[in-house]
Each structure stands twice: as C-alpha cells, then as structure tokens.
Amino acid sequence: MSRIKRHYELPVCSTNAVSDPKVWVFGKVVTLYFDYYVDGHKRRSGIRFVSTIAFRTTNERYGRVGSHYDRLTEYLDSDWLKELKAHASNHYRDDLERYRHFGIFLDSAGTFEVLSLDFELLPEEAASWESLSPTTRD
C-alpha cells in the first residue's frame, strides 16, 4: 500500500454535483471537470494534469475510497509507476522517475488516477459543465 500526500480538497462534498464529472484528453493533457452546488448556486472547477503518460478510472464500487474521497492525493511509492518502470527500457525507466501518481474519488463516479508531471487547479466559476459533452456521430 502506497503512502499518500494530500494536495487539494473539493470545496463541497461530491454528492452535491450538478452533473457527472467529465474527463477530457488532449494530447498529453488530461482534465477532470466537475461542478457542484454551493448555497443553491452552480459552481464549476476542475483539475488539469500536464505531461500525462497514463490515466485510468475505476467504478465507484471497486475504486479506492478512504482518504481519497473528494481529495486529490498523490500516491508516494506508487505500485502503478513501479509496474511501468519494470517494463520500460533503461532510457525510459530513468524518465519515469519524474512522474507522479495522482488520484481522487468522487461520489457516484469512482476513482480517477493519473500519471503526470504535475497538475493545476482550474479557477472556480459561477456556472456548470452540463453543456460540456463530446461530439458523437452514429
């Protein structure tokens, strides 16, 4: 089991979500968008992970909860990173030393985990991400 370091806590419990969280991937940038109610008003924010090499999601029934509930944490001594290092060539194994394993558990969504160099918090705004949806074609 990895030790953890807490970095950020949602301003309200994720049970106050306006809509399901959304994950967007653009190149090496992975962004987790979430919105919530504060005193009856819609607010939105998110977490952007930069220089991402991998991400995964786990259904809430099987995801890590504990101290990750509504909190962005960093898994120190990550088993996931150790696994990647074991399969990488020497050149890339050294490069993996710079990466960090982040995770957050959101109610009704599950666990989001990311391997990236760093993250940034999106500013909180008076709005929601309800209209943010992928374009699909049948």
Description:
With 138 residues, the chain is mainly β. The protein has one domain. It is built from two helices and nine strands. It has helices at 79-87, 90-96, and strands at 3-9, 22-26, 29-38, 41-50, 54-58, 71-76, 100-106, 110-116, 118-125. Strands 1-6-7-8-5 form a five-stranded antiparallel beta sheet, with no helix packed on it. Helix 1 (79-87) packs antiparallel against helix 2 (90-96). It is elongated. The mean pLDDT is 86.
Shape: elongated
Question: How many DSSP H or I helices?
Answer: 2
| Average of per-residue pLDDT values | 86
Strand order of the largest sheet: 1-6-7-8-5
Largest sheet, in brief, is:
5 strands, antiparallel
| Total E-strand runs | 9
Strand-residue fraction? over 45%
Q: Could you give the distance between the termini?
A: 43 Å
